[in-house]
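#structure-requests
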Amino acid sequence: MKKKLPKQLNVENNKTIASEKKLIEQLHDPQDRAAAFSQLVRKYQERLYWHIRKMVLSHDDANDILQNTFMKAWNGIDNFRGDSLVSTWFYRIATNETLTFLSNKRMKNINSLDEVEDVLLQQLQADQYFNGNEAQLKLQQAILTLPEKQRLVFNMRYFDDLSYEQMENILGTTAGALKASYHLAVKKIEKFLLDSDIEI
C-alpha cells in the first residue's frame, strides 16, 4: 500500500521546539495566556480536526470533539508543565476525547442491530462534506474493520504521518508494539481491498 502525499508534521525540529517553549512560557503568564493559546489553536486545529475525523468520520462530530479538546486544554493549562510538546499534549487530549466519544456511541447502540462501525460508515456516506470516490470509501470501510486502538494507530501513522516516537509519547505505548500493530493493520486492510478488487 503506497502512501500518497503524506502530511509532514515536523514538530521535532529545533525551530518548532524553541517556538513552543516560548509559547509555553506565555501560557503560564496570565497577561499573554489568551493570545498564546489562540496562536496554538490556529496552528494545530486543522491537524487535530483530521486526526479526530479519521476516527469518527462525521464532520459535525469531529467539530464537536475538537471544541471539547480545546476547552479541556484551556482548562488544564495550569497542569501542563511543558514536559512534552504542546502538539503531543493536544493530540493526547484529542485522542482521549475521541475514544470517549466512540465508547459512548457504542454504549448507546448496545441494544441496536447496527454495529457502531456500520453507523459510522452510513454517516460518512450521508455526510455532505465527504467528497471521496469509491476507492476512498472502500479504504474507510476497510479501516473500520480494525479494532478501535489499531485503527487509531493506523490513522496516526498513515494519514497523520507521525513517527513511532511521537505516537509513543501520545499513546503511552512502546514503539515496538505500535510498529507491530501498524503492520498488522496494513495487512488486514490490504487483504480487505484485495478481496474488493480496489487499489489504493
